[in-house]
Amino acid sequence: xxxxxxxxxxxxxxxxxxxxxxxxxxxxxxxxxxxxxxxxxxxxxxxxxxxxxxxxxxxxxxxxxxxxxxxxxxxxxxxxxxxxxxxxxxxxxxxxxxxx
Length: 100
Fold this sequence. Notes:
globular
């Protein structure tokens, strides 16, 4: 399960960093660090406790995280969820100077 999750995180453009016994996955949006989660290097199954912890680290609820990890939610839907919850604050478009 861990190896599958790593592949899914790569597909979603989460940046991988390895430190000690863990892989850290960071999510950046528009050049701004948003969140990170981690996995172990082992191939153990991810139980409900770890799913809850990882969903919390990714700043979404457990059901959304499960769908995201099972590829039924896209990166765009993840961004929309984070925007809806206020984790991502949309950058306002610059208004064009009007001609006088």
